[in-house]
Amino acid sequence: MLTNSLIEMDRQHLIHPVSSFQGHAARGVRVLASAKGARVTDAEGRELIDGFAGLWCVNAGYGHESVVEAAAEQMRKLPYATGYFGLGSEAPIKLAAALAERAPGDLNHIYFSLGGSDAVDSTIRFVRYYWHAKGQPGRDQFISVEEGYHGSTSMGAGLTALAGFHEGFGVPYSWQHKISSHYTYRNPLKSDAEIIAASVAELKAKVAAIGPERVAAFYVEPIQGSGGVLVPPKGWIKAMREACRELDILFIADEVITGFGRPGPLFACEEEGIVPDMMTTAKGLTSGYVPMGAVFMSDHVFETIAEGAGAKAVGHGFTYSAHPVSAAVALEVLSLYEGGLLENGRKAGARLMEGLQSLSDHPLVGDVRGRGMLAALELVTDKDKKTRLPASVQPATRLFDRAWDKGLIVRSFAQGIFGYAPPLCCTDDEIDQIVARTKAVLDETLDDADVRAAMA
Question: Any alpha helices (H) in 28-153, and if so which ranges?
Answer without folding.
Answer: 53-56, 65-77, 90-102, 116-133
